[in-house]
Design brief:
InterPro entries: ParB/Sulfiredoxin_sf (IPR036086), ParB_N (IPR003115). By secondary structure, the protein is an alpha/beta fold. It contains 8 helices and 5 strands. The longest helix is centred in the C-terminal third of the chain and has 16 residues.
């Protein structure tokens, strides 16, 4: 893996996209990666389980963003929880051979203040899911044959949340082909 990383780094030096950190994702030994001491983000247990399922089922689709230190170690700027899954989930740790995917932030952005600001930007830029859109997805998955349990497992929701989302759009759909008296107008 070290040889593969060297090849990637050499290609990255000549890439027209070398100013973009994601142009070069390297696989770093877990013991060379450490958390920062300023990240205010926390993930609730249901979302942490969903992240674990996501990485187990889909693999690492987003690298951990880190700053390269002079001693060859890397400090996490974004991706602490992806880091935790890679370290703490045995099947994932084994699959990635004790390594973590790292994209290194641009060298000009390594001051503590820049790193702190980058961490907050990454955390806040994630956005939130719209209830209406999530309800449409849940109803569509149900129509496509997924039962409530599978929807809950795959989307990281408990049974009540799945039911509430199904009811949000499901009620109107359930009665769409019915005719009502004018008293309802």
């Amino acid at each position: 893996m070290d040889a593969v990383n060297e090849i990637r780094l050499a290609l990255h030096e000549h890439s027209p996209m070398r100013s973009e950190p994601v142009d070069c994702v390297i696989w770093v030994r877990q013991d060379a990666v450490h958390a920062n001491d300023y990240n205010p983000n926390s993930v609730a247990p249901p979302e942490m389980r969903l992240l674990q399922l996501s990485i187990q089922a889909d693999g690492y689709t987003q690298p951990i963003v880190a700053m390269s230190e002079e001693d060859g170690r890397y400090e996490i700027v974004d991706g602490f929880h992806r880091n935790r899954v890679g370290r703490e989930v045995g099947a994932v740790r084994k699959r990635v051979k004790g390594r973590l995917p790292i994209a290194v932030i641009n060298a000009g952005r390594t001051s503590r203040e820049d790193r702190m600001a980058a961490t907050i930007r990454h955390n806040r830029a994630r956005g939130k899911h719209s209830v209406d859109t999530m309800a449409d997805i849940v109803v569509d998955l149900h129509r496509r044959g997924w039962d409530q349990e599978k929807i809950g497992k795959e989307l990281g929701m408990d049974a009540d949340e799945v039911l509430r989302l199904r009811q949000t759009t499901g009620l109107a759909a359930a009665f769409a082909d019915r005719e009502f008296s004018k008293a309802w107008e």
